[in-house]
Each structure stands twice: as C-alpha cells, then as structure tokens.
Amino acid sequence: DTNYLSGKLKGKEARKDLELDKFDKNNGHMIIFISEEIIGIGFSFFLGLFSPSIKKLGEKKFRKKFIFNYENIQTEKLVKLDVEYGINRVLEARTFIDVLFGVICSG
Q: How many CB atoms lie within 10 A of CB 107?
C-alpha cells in the first residue's frame, strides 16, 4: 500500500470494487474522502477510476455526483490539483462525437 495512488489498472480495480458503472446510472452522490495519508493521485489511477464517469456524465454532473472531501487543508493542497488535472485531461480527450452525444443526452 502506498500514499500515492497510481496505476490505471489499480484505478480500474477500485472502480469495479466501488461498482461505479452502476452508480453512474442512479441519482445519488458519493463523497470521496481523501485521507491525510494520501499525498497524491496519479493521472493513470484517476483515469482508471473516474474517466468513464466523467465521459458519461459530463463535468457538471460529475462534480455534483462525486464530491471530493479532504481531511485537512494540507491534504487539499497536495491532492486537489491532481483531481482537477484528472478531470480536465479527461474532458480535453473527449471527441466531438462525445461532446455532441453528451449534449443530446442531457436534454
């Protein structure tokens, strides 16, 4: 176990364990508590864990559904940039079809 979360496969495993594919379909929200023991989240891990949700929900709905809560200010300073970077990179990688499809689906 490490204080820096990394690896796309580990992110995908966490996604599966948390059943996020099912969760994306319901109206609930999830608080993602980031312990002070975590010093960072690698983009590959973030991608494996959250990319399908961001692509499916879009930025606004993703941010409403997944609420990142940091144990303290120090943890927020260390990890929030990783979270924001991950969200932005996934959004930048979306294709025109993804964007168009998202607009059509969001009604």
A: 4
Q: For residue 67, which of 31, 33, 18 has the smallest C-alpha distance? A: 31
Compute the distance between CA of residue 80 and CA of residue 82 in angstroms, rounded to an integer. Answer: 5
Contact 53, 65 (CB under 8 A): yes
pTM: 0.82
pLDDT digits (tens, 9 = 90+) for 58-102: 999 999 999 999 999 999 999 999 999 999 999 887 655 555 665
Other Cβ atoms within 10 Å of 17 Cβ, number: 8
pLDDT of amino acid 99? 58
User: Which token pair is 78?
Assistant: 């260390």
DSSP sequence for 12-73? HHHHHHTTHHHHTTSS--EEEEE-TT--EE-HHHHHHHHHHHHHHHHHHHHHHHEEEEESSH
Which helix (H) or strand (E) is 5 found in, with range? Answer: strand 4-5
